UniProtKB/TrEMBL annotation:
Signal peptide: none annotated. The chain crosses the membrane at residues 30-53, 65-90, 115-136, 157-178, 190-214, 239-256, 268-292, 313-331, 337-355. NCBIfam families: PRK14013.1-3. It comes from Streptomyces fradiae ATCC 10745 = DSM 40063. Keywords: Membrane, Transmembrane, Transmembrane helix. This is Membrane protein.
Length: 383
């Protein structure tokens, strides 16, 4: 079952890592591997959400999502989007950006270095908003309770995350941006950082608005479906679970694509904190996206992996760390391996915390069962 579901992902991983080592050396191998792990960890909760929605569709729309959807996710967002970001930031055409990366890597590196302040500000604000909206939301499970409980209470204040993000942007623009790195040395990029940061904030709000719109459409369709089922039961008709089709499934498909796009943003933008090499980036994120799709299929067929309740927390803390790193790199250089390792450590810590929690629950349940059996034995002996 595992080999059947993850077979293509394993094959793409082996070929991708081998190609990176052959073409660019062991440094590229390490960076591509880190990017793959980062993409999987950041998109784990997205796979869980995808699985929960995908199982409501009929077989046709599931196949559409897992075929056309993977083309959009891997080739669109992971390959084209990084090129578009570089092209816009460096003020060159997308084809010219690719040609420069292939034929004149030194000039390309200079363009990316000059554009790094705008890329970091845009990405840092986008990722920061994802992190802030997560920690300010009241949640059933809390990983770092001493921190998350008071923040959840503060989160009841309207627009708090936007206000904090704008304050962070102003501080960044008046400190780091005044001595931003360029290929010619240092330069004042305050205006560029402000403009790019606001663009990142607007992008997040637009993506969130689209997700909310499709989510509302989904809820409306589910309500209508439930009403139709109730009417059928009242009329004595048999109700069969065939999965959504037609307009309802189409809105589900669009909603899933918007979700994928939003999670692709954090993966692609976070990758700029690790490397500026668009081919390493596309290769690593593409491998990660394959695993996210395979994991989605696995969750649909086997159930869920919800018992690891702190993984989502670890992923979002990794996003917050990447946001801070991106903003700091406007002025100070941070090694790519350090950046990638921080995210992996946070994910691993949240996974281990989830495992320990599950063991405590299992031990408590076993103790309760043992106590119950002991009570029954005492009663039997008394009789």
């Amino acid at each position: 079952m595992v080999l059947k579901t993850f077979g293509w992902s394993f094959a793409v991983t082996a070929l991708g890592l081998a190609f990176a080592a052959w073409q660019w050396g062991w440094e590229a191998f390490g960076i591509v591997l880190i990017l793959s792990i980062l993409e999987i960890s950041l998109s784990f909760d997205n796979a869980v959400v995808n699985a929960g929605i995908l199982k409501k569709m009929n077989a046709f729309w599931q196949k559409i999502f897992l075929t056309i959807g993977i083309m959009v996710a891997v080739f669109g967002m992971r390959l084209v989007f990084p090129v578009v970001i570089v092209a816009i930031s460096a003020k060159v055409g997308p084809i010219e950006a690719v040609q420069l990366a292939l034929d004149q890597p030194e000039q390309y590196e200079a363009l990316v270095t000059d554009a790094h302040a705008s890329i970091a500000a845009f990405g840092g604000m986008f990722l920061l908003m994802i992190f802030l909206d997560f920690i300010f939301e009241e949640r059933e499970f809390k990983w770092l309770g001493w921190l998350e409980r008071p923040l959840a209470k503060l989160g009841k204040i309207d627009m708090l995350s936007v206000c904090i993000a704008l304050i962070v942007l102003l501080v960044t623009a008046t400190t780091f941006a005044t001595q931003a790195h360029t290929s010619a040395g240092h330069a004042d990029k305050s205006a560029t950082v402000l403009l790019s940061g606001v663009a990142g904030l607007i992008t997040y709000l637009v993506v969130g608005g689209l997700s909310g719109y499709f989510e509302n459409k989904l809820e409306e369709d589910e309500e209508r479906e439930h009403e139709a089922e109730e009417q059928a039961k009242q009329q004595g008709k048999q109700v069969s679970a065939v999965g959504l089709a037609g307009k309802a499934a189409f809105f589900l498909f669009l909603y899933l694509e918007v979700l994928d796009a939003s999670f692709s943003f954090d993966g692609v933008i976070g990758a700029f904190a690790i490397t500026n090499h668009i081919f390493w980036m596309a290769l690593g994120l593409g491998i990660g996206a394959m695993y996210v799709r395979s994991l989605t299929v696995y969750l649909v067929r086997q159930g869920t992996l919800d018992e690891y309740v702190f993984l989502e927390h670890g992923a979002h803390y990794a996003i917050g760390a990447l946001a801070a790193i991106l903003l700091i790199t406007i002025q100070h250089e941070i090694h790519e391996l350090i950046t990638g390792t921080v995210g992996i450590i946070l994910i691993a810590a949240s996974f281990l915390s989830s495992v320990r929690r599950n063991k405590r629950i299992a031990a408590a349940e076993n103790a309760a069962v043992g106590k119950g059996e002991g009570d029954k034995t005492e009663v039997t002996s008394a009789v």
